[in-house]
Design brief:
With 335 residues, this protein is an alpha/beta fold. Helix content is 38%, strand content 13%. Helix 1 packs across helix 5. The protein binds N-carbamoyl-L-aspartate.
Length: 335
């Protein structure tokens, strides 16, 4: 794998390979010493042009646990705020010897531009671009669903027939887009639920059903209900009458939580607007996988960085070495 830019173009076997390597990474994260020597000498740059807490920290933790050197570059307070272009920034990183660049950007397509421009030779990971995609989020979501369903027996399995319902601000959500593509590739059945104003115009071309009524969607018995954050910062108009009205019709409250099937899970990528799209009861209930998603995010990002960077000189090989080598022996692990 050379870059990880989207899930729309991610083949089933590549997605499963990332999820399976993430299982191995998760196993190592249960050890007392979590650090592996795998990416010693490699440099990962976190290039964040948009605010982020958990995604940036997650990539940082993932890179550090693989012993890579991490440079955090956030656009605020950098030369970008003085008008430096993406090209100049990229060329600076290239001159510093970055092996991988993890980029979050407000413009859809910025990671692809970086990957295909020829400005850098580093592998590029999309950490969220505009309303386009957020592939590692979808991968960690799929990992979480698979883990809840199959436990220690998850490796090699896809999500055939699993019903996933994604609720809320689909229009502005790169998380929803990446999930729709990946879940479909893995065999899941995806339903989107949103007010008509928050459904994208081209949704008929997506491999997903659309409903407007959350109670109807819950009655259909989803295995996973994924609540999306209302992205007020991307809204330049009034998409719903009031927040109260939104949460009454599309929020996950205690009554709807009770109506879910015994084994269904409640997901949210964070950050949550408690009381708007999700109630505190739902967010903190045993059905909620919110914190599992955060923990799994580190394993999935370790897997992605590993597949991009390890054992590839130059970093273009498609096949990773055996997983044992990926996670190191116990002895290496304590070095
Ligand atoms: C998501 C994002 O930034 O796209 N959050 C995240 O990565 N943890 C979703 C969101 O901001 O609502």
């Amino acid at each position: 794998m050379r870059h990880l830019l989207d899930t729309q173009g991610l083949a089933r076997e590549d997605a499963l390979r990332i999820l399976d390597v993430a299982e191995d990474m998760a196993d190592t994260q249960r050890r007392e010493i979590k650090k592996l020597p795998t990416l010693r000498g490699k440099t990962v740059v976190n290039l964040f042009f948009e605010d982020s807490t958990r995604t940036r920290i997650s990539f940082e933790a993932a890179a550090k646990r693989l012993s890579a050197d991490v440079i955090n570059f956030s656009a605020k307070g950098s030369s970008v705020s003085k008008g430096e272009s993406l090209q100049d920034t990229a060329q600076t990183l290239q001159a510093m010897g970055a092996d991988a660049v993890v980029i979050r950007h407000g413009a859809s397509g910025a990671p692809r531009t970086l990957a295909t421009s020829g400005w850098i030779s580093a592998g590029v990971v999309n950490a969220g671009d505009g309303t386009h995609e957020h592939p590692t989020q979808a991968l960690l979501d799929a990992f979480t669903i698979r883990k809840r369903r199959f436990g220690d027996d998850s490796r090699g399995r896809d999500l055939d027939g699993v019903k996933v319902t994604i609720v809320g601000d689909v229009l502005h959500s790169r998380v929803a887009r990446s999930n729709v593509w990946l879940l479909n590739t893995l065999g899941a059945r995806v339903t989107l639920v949103a007010p008509p104003t928050l459904v994208p115009q081209d949704v008929s071309t997506w491999p997903a059903d659309v409903l407007y009524d959350l109670d109807d969607a819950i009655a259909a018995g989803p295995d996973a209900l994924m609540m999306l954050r209302i992205q007020l910062e991307r809204m330049n108009a009034a998409y719903f009458p009031t927040e109260r009205e939104y949460s009454r019709r599309w929020g996950l409250d205690a009554r709807r939580l009770d109506a879910l099937g015994a084994d269904s899970i409640v997901m949210h990528p964070g950050p949550m607007n408690r009381g708007l799209e999700i109630s505190a009861e739902a967010a903190d209930s045993p059905r909620s996988t919110v914190l599992e998603q955060v923990a799994n995010g580190v394993s999935v990002r370790m897997a992605a960085l590993y597949l991009l960077l390890a054992g590839t000189e130059p970093s273009t090989a498609d096949t990773p070495p055996a997983t044992d080598a990926a996670v190191g022996t116990e002895k290496e692990n304590t070095r």
